[in-house]
Amino acid sequence: MKNYTIALLFLLVISVSSNAQNTTMNTTQLAENTVRNFLEIVRSGKSPERASEFMADSVKAHQLNAEHPETITRTPENYTQHVNEFLQGYGHYQFEVTELIASNDKVYARWKQTGNQTGDVDGFKPTGLPVTEIGSAVYRVAGGKIVEYWVQIDRKGTEIQQQNNSSVKSGSSKAGLPFPDAYISGDVLYISGQIGIDHTGELVNTGFEAEATQVMENLGNVLRKNRLHYKDLVNVTIYLTSMDNYAALNKVYSNYFGKKFPARVCIAVKELPRQAHVEIAAVADFNN
Q1: Which of 16, 49, 140, 169 has its Cα between 20 and 30 A from that of 240?
Q2: Which domain holds residue 228?
Q3: Complete DSSP assignment for 214-268
Q4: How many helices and strands (H and E) does the chain possess?
Q5: Of which family is this protein a member (predicted)?
Q6: What pLDDT, in 10s, does the model give residues 147-181?
Q7: pTM, entire model
Q8: 16 belongs to a structural domain
Q9: Is residue 141, in this structure, part of any structural domain at all?
């Protein structure tokens, strides 16, 4: 009788443990499916009007801005409007969920959003050039709907892209000069020499690496304006006012390429326009 009782207790423990495990798995799976569908259907801009299918009537939204953290209340209606504002600013943007990890009622998600700016966004006028936003959030799900989330956006990275795009669009770096940023001949793009001028039209003067980085960003802006990337470069010409900066230049330059680099020449010169320390001209191939 004693052994029979022990066996029953053992089976009961296994049953309770199994049920608890199944409940946890069901909760986790439900939360993951809810968030995945919310991101791919609503946040992606495909069907923002369906927000109420995945969101509770009142959702706590914790916006984790380092300088000004705040908690606001989101409803399906104002979240739909929130997504519509993205559509007004960037048209039908591309949205990719790059990470999704679920545990019980919480789901971590990271995404990448890319769209051409076609409307006013955060004080920046439309340029028609691409802007990429990287964001992440932790969502809490209850009853099959999102009830709370904590979100972080790389706002500084987005702002830098908008500033650079504005500089390219306005042509401020070439204002008053008798040449364009680039010239197309056949399948080849010839890019005029770029110096380290930021969106304000001033030369970056916080150090050589910062100036060289701005030069490479300006070069990238011209490429993106023509739907090209750094990998499409086939020849690069660099002008330095001091070869003492050669190693620092290579350090910055290497960050913009994978294992494949374009042909390159580096020339020492006495001086450059605007008292710049580095200038880069390049050639890109549309068929590269």
Answers
A1: 169
A2: 179-285
A3: HHHHHHHHHHHHTT--GGGEEEEEEEES-GGGHHHHHHHHHTT--S---EEEEEE
A4: 5, 11
A5: Belongs to the RutC family.
A6: 999 999 998 889 888 887 776 655 444 556 788 88
A7: 0.55
A8: no
A9: yes
